[in-house]
Design goal:
The protein has 208 residues and is mainly α. It has 2 domains: 84 residues, Rna Polymerase Sigma Factor, Chain: A, CATH 1.10.1740.10; 96 residues, Arc Repressor Mutant, subunit A (Orthogonal Bundle). The chain contains 8 helices and no strands.
Length: 208
Amino acid sequence: MAPAGTSPDVGAEGEEISDHELIKACQKRDSRAFEILMMRHRGNVYAMIQNMIKNEADAWDLSQEVFLKVWKALPKFEARAKFSTWLYRITHNVVYDWLRKRKIESAGELDDGILRESDIAAGAQTTPTKIARPDEALANSELGKKITLALATLNAEHRETILLREVQGFDYKEIAKVMECSLGTVMSRLYYARKKLKTILCDEKGKD
């Protein structure tokens, strides 16, 4: 138990307890440690799911399902793995199971094999230097609405890829692990998603 006057996720020396320490405690079935770990990550997990399925109530339910699966699977978690990548892999599976059960089909389908890696250079003309991130757009509600609407036009795979990269800050290898696909597939999905978002946002700007 944390000393009086300290945050529950702060140790006796006043230092924040690391995820690694919390995970070790969770693997010993310490429910308090798991509560702290869940509180630390549930906001990002919920936001990711909400951006994927666009339904607050279902996003909340799926977030709870994610952490139930995390609790059950933590004893098998290996310390050499990155916790955030492992957590988002579970989140990915929960969301796609939900989508499959409801047979939801998103707009904007694209065969990722159509694009070659050589066509997706970092400096390609259709790749913007920076996509405005939803969390950074909160200060501008009108821009935030446009970004949300633009994201909704992407299919589930491309939307998840752009969110993992631009919002969660995952690198290409981490995204590939979460989505269980090749680096080339990650690159092509990002290329397509960025190109479509740029086109939509530029069109909207032209209407203003």
